[in-house]
Amino acid sequence: MELAEGQPAPDFTLPDETGQSRNLTDYRGQPLVLYFYPEDDTPGCTAEACNFRDDYSVFTDLGIQLVGVSPDDPESHQAFKGKYKLPFPLLADVGHKVCDAYGVWGEKVLFGHHYEGVRRSTFLIDEFGNISKIFTQVHIRTHSRDVLESAKGLLPGAGESVEK
User: Fold this and answer.
1) CA dist 65 to 34, 55, 114, Å?
2) Cα 153 from Cα 132, distance rounded (Å)
């Protein structure tokens, strides 16, 4: 089933980089940016994570929560988070069940090679747990700002531009 904007986000329970279980309901009451990325410590995923890191205080000052998800294990997440000083949780979807539920696991092609993996995607979830926006065309270097602009639309005073 393909997810659509306006419908409830699929619930999940996954371990973070410390092994602590986290679920979608832990984030209710504030907008949530749930971003799915293919693999820790690869060039594209690192650039995306570091851009979210650099904008993190803007997200949190607005009351927006941020969480990354990939099929890497908690130990890999812990090393990735420490190496790049990422201030947000990274959830380990080792069996890619949550990736499947969100429709981000599937066929990919790299240099003519077909394989299964995470298609880089982000879900903006409102304070009630409903999907407000789905980003499937992710431009790694500008994605954090694109998401931030959309997330601001969920807040009082929406429409003001994001300034850092």
Assistant:
1) 8, 12, 34
2) 10
DSSP per-residue letters across 43-81: HHHHHHHHHHHHHHHHHHHTT-EEEEEESS-HHHHHHHH
Examine the residue annotation and report whether 45 is marked as an active-site residue of this protein.
yes
Q: What residue ranges do the domains of the chain occupy? A: 15-152
Does the pTM exceed 0.85? yes
Q: Give one word for 53, left, alpha or beta, with left for phi > 0 and alpha for psi -120 to 50.
A: alpha
Q: What is the largest CA-CA distance in the chain?
A: 47
Catalytic-labelled residue, pool 9, 14, 45, 49? 45
Q: Please give the full DSSP string across 11-39, using - where no structure is assigned.
A: P-EEE-TTS-EEEGGGGTTS-EEEEE-S-
| Of 69, 55, 79, 164, the residue nearest 119 (C-alpha) | 69
The pLDDT of residue 2 is 84
The pLDDT, as a whole number, for residue 161 is 47
pLDDT under 50: residue ranges of the chain = 158-164
Token pair 């994001």 is found at: 162
Classify domain 15-152 by CATH number.
3.40.30.10
